[in-house]
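Exercise 7. Given the encoded structure of a 263-residue chain, write a plausible sequence.
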């Protein structure tokens, strides 16, 4: 797919660019000649990435759960004439819920990051994109299609992203704004530090390569890897005790990164 507006700009904004999938997407896009605006909270990580990727990587510290910070970044980018036409809204957190512990504060925080941190970027940039063209990519998860035990808040945010993007896709079908939803299965990133081996886990560099190729080929719904796509398809007829063997994982304890950030 020709990314709408690409002829003028090749500028991508990526949230959650400091590690994992987002960092690998930034790497590949820079290699393909794009300018990348990387957004995250850990500026020390973003600085290291800039040292590696060079002048075409611009970074900004922003907590996507705070609308006022997104507004501030948007104004800065407009002032600097760094006007993206590809928005990869990837920042996310996953909190493992111990049995019986549905912590509402953590629930709200997961929604503020994984859901409202995406919606606010769309809200800020949609009017510009309707005039100039643009593509919004929402990073959902296969967990939106097959929810996982002990991850109720995470799965709910990812289902909300998928539904919202589907609605927006239909609403703006005849405009020059595109909405792409990505449904990754397990990727070997900081998010999935499981003590148990996860079957068919994908390297984030391979995932980034696959997803960008699909986006540029014009796909608007992208799911991978094949094993988990198929598992979900047959999951409806599998006895639950078999299904649970494949979808049961416990990541390492959640570290509240807000508390560990001082720059
Ligand atoms: N790994 C998987 O198996 C998997 C599967 C399906 C979907 N996904 C989705 O893929 C996306 C990327 O995750 P990942 O696997 O690459 O994990 P990761 O390495 O933990 O990356 C998460 C990224 O989100 C950023 N982030 C988190 N909270 C933020 C906040 N409040 N404000 C700004 N940035 C924030 C983090 O940056 P800072 O900490 O520096 O802010 C980091 O760059 C997530 O949306 C995740 O849900 C992952």
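Solution.
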């Amino acid at each position: 797919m020709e990314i709408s507006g690409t002829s003028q700009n090749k500028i991508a904004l990526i949230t959650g660019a400091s590690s994992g999938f987002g960092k690998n997407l930034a790497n590949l896009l820079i290699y393909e000649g794009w300018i990348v605006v990387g957004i995250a909270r850990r500026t020390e990580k973003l600085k290291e990435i800039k040292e590696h990727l060079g002048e075409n990587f611009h970074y900004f510290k922003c907590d996507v759960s705070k609308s006022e910070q997104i507004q501030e970044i948007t104004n800065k980018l407009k002032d600097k004439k760094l006007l993206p036409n590809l928005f990869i809204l990837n920042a996310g957190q996953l909190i493992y819920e111990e049995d019986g512990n549905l912590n509402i504060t953590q629930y709200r925080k997961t929604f503020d990051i994984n859901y409202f941190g995406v919606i606010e970027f769309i809200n800020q940039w949609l009017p510009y994109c309707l005039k100039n063209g643009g593509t919004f990519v929402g990073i959902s998860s296969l967990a939106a299609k097959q929810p996982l035990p002990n991850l109720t808040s995470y799965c709910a945010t990812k289902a909300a992203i998928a539904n919202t993007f589907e609605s927006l896709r239909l609403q703006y079908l005849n405009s020059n704004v595109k909405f792409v939803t990505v449904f990754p299965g397990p990727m070997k990133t900081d998010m999935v530090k499981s003590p148990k081996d996860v079957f068919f886990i994908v390297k984030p560099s391979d995932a980034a390569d696959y997803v960008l190729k699909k986006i540029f080929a014009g796909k608007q719904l992208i799911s991978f890897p094949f094993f988990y796509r198929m598992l979900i398809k047959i999951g409806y007829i599998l006895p639950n005790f078999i299904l649970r063997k494949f979808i049961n994982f416990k990541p390492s304890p959640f570290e509240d990164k807000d508390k560990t950030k001082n720059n």
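Remark. The chain has one domain: 11-260. Students should compare their own answers with the one above.
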